Inverse folding.
């Protein structure tokens, strides 16, 4: 079954404590991206990756890092989380020629 | 850059009544258009997409949308809603012919279906 998985699904943390949200896909897709969803703002892209070792900034990259060392995984790293990064985060993937993006189930992050 | 405006943030509707969700976009280049649905506590699922051809596109669960180039709109409709259609709906665009697959989303419309 085609899947995009994210872990953890829920996380409460404190300001400044480094964290990583993992994203994994089993569809052999080249393109992966991260979005954050905030009320009244819809989804905004944080970072994306066209393939292994190729990443680039989206619209709201400040405070985030990513890496793409292997095709299936695209972790989102918050080196020093702040309360304004409290949000719902989605990982998405797609393959070339396919116009649809497949979204993971989401990770709800609260930074206190 | 592209931007998407969803004209209604909340749409309450009775079961078996029709619903229309309005979406307008602005872009200096041609775009592909999408509607996604997010059920409570779930990720986003594609409802339908407009790539080219007929301006009336049909999607899953009885939804359809019409692309109007002159009005830069892509309104979503369903003739008769069910309780299970309660969800948040997002309109999105993507630049046509670009290697940048980024989707630009509207703020979302919450549809609440009441019996």
């Amino acid at each position: 079954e085609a899947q995009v998985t994210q872990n953890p699904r829920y996380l409460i943390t404190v300001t400044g404590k480094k964290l990583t949200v993992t994203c994994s896909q089993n569809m052999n897709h080249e393109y992966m991206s991260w979005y954050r969803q905030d009320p009244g703002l819809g989804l905004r892209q944080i970072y994306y990756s066209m393939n292994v070792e190729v990443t680039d900034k989206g619209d709201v990259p400040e405070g985030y890092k990513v890496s793409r060392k292997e095709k299936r995984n695209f972790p989102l790293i918050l080196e020093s989380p702040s309360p304004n990064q409290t949000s719902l985060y989605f990982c998405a993937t797609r393959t070339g020629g396919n116009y649809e993006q497949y979204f993971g189930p989401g990770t709800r992050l609260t930074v206190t | 850059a592209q931007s998407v405006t969803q004209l209604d943030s909340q749409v309450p509707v009775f079961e078996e009544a029709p619903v229309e969700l309005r979406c307008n976009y602005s872009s200096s280049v041609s775009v592909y258009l999408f509607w996604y649905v997010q059920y409570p506590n779930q990720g986003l699922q594609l409802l339908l997409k407009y790539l080219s051809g007929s301006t009336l596109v049909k999607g899953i669960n009885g939804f359809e949308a019409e692309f109007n180039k002159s009005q830069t709109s892509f309104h979503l409709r369903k003739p008769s809603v069910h309780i299970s259609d309660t969800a948040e709906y997002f309109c999105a665009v993507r630049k046509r012919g670009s290697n940048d697959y980024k989707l630009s989303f509207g703020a979302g419309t919450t549809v609440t279906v009441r019996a």
Observations:
- Chain B has a mean pLDDT of 93.
- The two ends of chain B are 41 Å apart (CA to CA).
- Chain B touches chain A through 24 residues (CB under 8 Å).
